[in-house]
Amino acid sequence: MTDAKETQWDELITHGSVVSKQHLADYFAEDPERFNKMHRQFGPLLYDFSKQRLTDQTLKHLIDLADAHDLQGWIQRLFSGEEVNDSEGRAAMHWALRLPVDAKCQVGDDDITSQVHEQLQHMELIVDKIRAGQWRGATGEVITDVINIGVGGSDLGPLMVTEALNDFTRKTPQGLNVHFASTIDGSQLSQLLRDKKPQSTMFVISSKSFTTIDTLTNASTALQWLQRSFGRRASASILHCHFIGVSASPHKMTEWGIAEENQLGFWGWVGGRYSLWSAIGLPIALKIGVKGFRRLLAGAHDMDEHFKSAPWRDNLPVLMGMIGVWNTNVLDINALSILPYDGRLKQLPLYFEQLEMESNGKSVKRDGQPVTRSTCPIIWGDVGPNAQHAFYQLLHQGTEAVTCDFIVPVRRYDEARHHEAAEELAAQHQLSLANCLAQSRLLALGDAALKDADELPTHMRYRGNQPSSTLLLDELNPYSLGALIALYEHKVFVQSVIWDVNPFDQWGVEMGKKIAMSTLAKIRGEDASLEDTDSSSAGLLRRIEAEWKS
Amino acid sequence: MYIDVYGDTLCALVSAAGLAATGHNVSLHVPQGPAATTLARGGCPYREPGLPEMLAEQTTAGRFKLARVDVPPDEKSTMIWLALSPTDMDQAFQIIKGLPVDGERSWLLVNQSTFPVGSTEALQQALKDLPGGESTQRVAASLPDLLIEGAAVSGFIHAEQWILGCDSDWGKRMVAEALRPFNRRRDNIMIMGPREAEFTKLAVTGMLATRLSFMNDMANLADMLDVDIERVRQGMGKDKRIGESYLYPGCGFGGLSFSQDVMSLASTLQHSGIQAQLLDQVLRINERQKESLFRKLWRYYGTDLRGRKVAIWGVAFKPESARIDNAPALKLIEALWAQDVEVHVHDPRALPALAEWAGPRDDLVLHKDQYAALVDADALMLVTEWSAYMSPDLPHMKGSMKQPLILDGRNIWDPTFMKQNGFDYFGIGRR
């Protein structure tokens, strides 16, 4: 590490030793202007970090640290299509998926914008045909149910966004339903196939490599389900009418049998967990229409531009990323809880778990050396009001320091102004907002938020000083959600620069898949030897074998 | 009596002509449109037996005259008679607003239009809300249109029964007086509340639609079971409890009054929070049935229709009509277009309506000659059973078509005979 970097770390840590002794309640007591100084607005997002345990001086140190790590240079490399994913030798250009059609983006010989928009248009054709009720099954029936088969990035993103934007569902004549099946054991798929009609059901097989075993197993179950209904001779019609493939590997799709005109492509330079902006987002477009999908892209694109151009002090992804670094590396807080106060965002914590932990859950630097500081914290969460009845106890009175991101839209049920139940529902949302603010306040201030706390018994008291950020969305819509997701993507990138890890690979998930294959042979009795495994696995295998033999 | 009838529906014309024929002085207020133009030229917009002659006679006799909708009723008139199209409810309120109320004038409104249940009460309220509503008679009565097309005139003159929904004694007496000439043999006016009368009309159409959808459902099963639905239909029709009408399977029913009647019953119930479960299914089955010929074509050509050419005979929602409202052909054409099929259409009367509906497009060609539509076609779909299609020139057809595939949506041709003539033939529930 260069001296400049070390110097900045030393200064930050020295500064941290003073700040960490302060209680958030004192900061608020000292400075009534704290919120005014410590919140930023970009587009539909208000980012309040005044409940983080830091001072204005901290921000200056963090900005110096970012500069020492050449954050500007890295952003430049990211957005010029350089191979920032060095372990896999490729660029990471998810941002290019949301470029407007008139943007110029040339990387090497490739006109990226036109490639992206060509696929977007192909997707639009398919989406419009399905939504118009003119996509036909093998018997000519209108397709009414689309099942997305994918896992990881090919599942979490589309699933999270379709649920979040449920209120923006555009009606179709046939009443189109979109479903998701991901788990390797077929749990969701078996449930879905039970009450869907083969004649009017189609499958979207989403896999970047088109070799993902989880996805291909589910896909083959789906294919056999159709063949049982239509007969094996109908295979060509079945593939032509009931399967769409989304992948970066066209020849693998062809090999599996996806008809060429039903293939949607994306590129090696799109990471799985960054892929919902590509044709992987097909289920989103099916649900909210292509117009809505373009709004989602526009929100993310505007965040890209903000990230590229705003000064660090006003740059939401930079502030968020650097404050995360501060919490992890200076305040030693190793857990981040994602707490949306809106039931539509139920999947958001799961989505961010993958985005952050698969990106930055690394302990080897880009140069192959082990890291010397902590990297990505443990991230988990749930819909806030429900989590209040689950793990908030630990947040308030446990021994672990945890930082929280509270995420909540200000307006809701606005679109249903003329709906009869709008008033009751709006009142419910107010209750949710009140809970959100109350929890972050109590977490920050502790007893100082209470009257006469000194008189309470110790088990009824609150330590406080748990830092949190609050993200207020004007309202949850395709545009604001696009901006929100892109904000976290870039936050993750900022942190990866400071931690010097490659956020775009995931070597930690590879080996398990391979061992599973050799273990499968043992379970199926194709490989009888148990010596090459450990005694725990051998013991479990013997128990399982006994069951499958009987 | 002086009676002012509003509307350009078949019901409006039959009522106006029938009332004039018994001596009433009738003004028919016709909304602007093709029907108004035909009437103004002295023609009759409907091919209904007896109707053109009756209109001509009554015009000559001076008891039947035409008027615009915005012209107020005759100054001697107390009774207005609405037989508007189901979608023209707003017009009904406009007409009421325009009624002269000077000199404490009483008004009786007889509603024959098929509006949602409860509409007659709403119309009555609108009448009462006009100035002078407290001191005069302001009544709306429901007299549902139960006419049977093809026998509409005789059905009016020799009605088996009238259903009158009216709560006012004055109103009942007035309507009974207007209908007295048609009511001489025995009292055949059945009196009930306005809502009940409206609901009866909707229930009747709902039942007829249910029979058709039931038969279509049976036909689809017959396809699977290799049974000829025509024999089944004849067998069923001989059962006195069932009877022969409304048992013809086909590629779906359309028409403004028919399908909209059904729909308004379904939406009336849905609005009240109760699900009309059976009628909801009836509608769904019918919408699905409209695509039955498409599905046969789709399977015949192995789920790929790109670049094919399909001929359609008949787009009117029924024979003898120039109208295409909710016609099965429209759904078929949309399905074909979506698969990049070029559609060639012949219809004796409905081509102008179709052209207006479709707008200019490359993948639709309209033909005045039914055989010209067949040239190089990959299939012929028979959708409306015009008489001219019943016994066509088969060798000529076969010679023109690229692929002699016949999809008969009305079962007008004999499967065996068609096959003998070298066609691949598929009907609805038979082949």
Automatic annotation (TrEMBL), chain A:
Which EC number(s) does UniProt give? 5.3.1.9
What Pfam families does the record tag this protein with?
Answer: PGI
Q: Name one GO molecular function term.
A: monosaccharide binding
Q: Which InterPro entries match?
A: G6P_Isomerase, G6P_Isomerase_C, Phosphoglucose_isomerase_CS, SIS_dom_sf, SIS_PGI_1, SIS_PGI_2
A biological process term (GO) from this entry: glycolytic process
Catalytic activity of the protein: alpha-D-glucose 6-phosphate = beta-D-fructose 6-phosphate
Look up keyword Isomerase and say if it applies.
Answer: yes
Question: Where are the bilayer-spanning segments?
Answer: none
Q: Where in the cell is it found?
A: Cytoplasm
Q: Does the keyword Cytoplasm apply?
A: yes
CDD domains (UniProt xref): SIS_PGI_1, SIS_PGI_2
User: What keyword terms does UniProt attach to this protein?
Assistant: Cytoplasm, Gluconeogenesis, Glycolysis, Isomerase
**Pathway(s) it belongs to:** Carbohydrate degradation; glycolysis; D-glyceraldehyde 3-phosphate and glycerone phosphate from D-glucose: step 2/4; Carbohydrate biosynthesis; gluconeogenesis
What does the record give as the active site? E358, H389, K513
Q: In the UniProt record, which is one GO cellular component term?
A: cytosol
**Chief location bin:** cytoplasm
Q: Which family does it belong to?
A: Belongs to the GPI family.
User: What does the function comment of this entry state?
Assistant: Catalyzes the reversible isomerization of glucose-6-phosphate to fructose-6-phosphate.
HAMAP family, alphabetized: G6P_isomerase
PANTHER family in UniProt: GLUCOSE-6-PHOSPHATE ISOMERASE
Q: What is this protein called?
A: Glucose-6-phosphate isomerase
Species assigned in the record: Halopseudomonas xinjiangensis
* Upper classification of the organism: Bacteria, Pseudomonadati, Pseudomonadota, Gammaproteobacteria, Pseudomonadales
Gene that this polypeptide is encoded by? pgi
Automatic annotation (TrEMBL), chain B:
Q: Where is the UDP-glucose/GDP-mannose dehydrogenase C-terminal domain?
A: 311-415
Q: Which GO terms describe its biological process?
A: polysaccharide biosynthetic process; UDP-glucuronate biosynthetic process
Residues that, per the record, bind substrate? K201, Y246, L247, Y248, P249, G250, G254, K318
Reaction(s) catalysed by this chain, per the record, are: UDP-alpha-D-glucose + 2 NAD(+) + H2O = UDP-alpha-D-glucuronate + 2 NADH + 3 H(+)
Give, as in the UniProt entry, the pathway in which the protein acts. Answer: Nucleotide-sugar biosynthesis; UDP-alpha-D-glucuronate biosynthesis; UDP-alpha-D-glucuronate from UDP-alpha-D-glucose: step 1/1
Q: What class of enzyme is it?
A: oxidoreductase
Task: Tell me its EC number(s), please.
Answer: 1.1.1.22
Question: Do you know which SMART domains this protein is assigned to?
Answer: UDPG_MGDP_dh_C
Keyword annotations of the record: NAD, Oxidoreductase
The entry marks the following residues as binding NAD(+), namely T114, E149
Single Gene Ontology MF annotation: NAD binding
Family the UniProt entry places it in: Belongs to the UDP-glucose/GDP-mannose dehydrogenase family.
UniProt protein name: UDP-glucose 6-dehydrogenase
The top of its lineage is: Bacteria, Pseudomonadati, Pseudomonadota, Gammaproteobacteria, Pseudomonadales
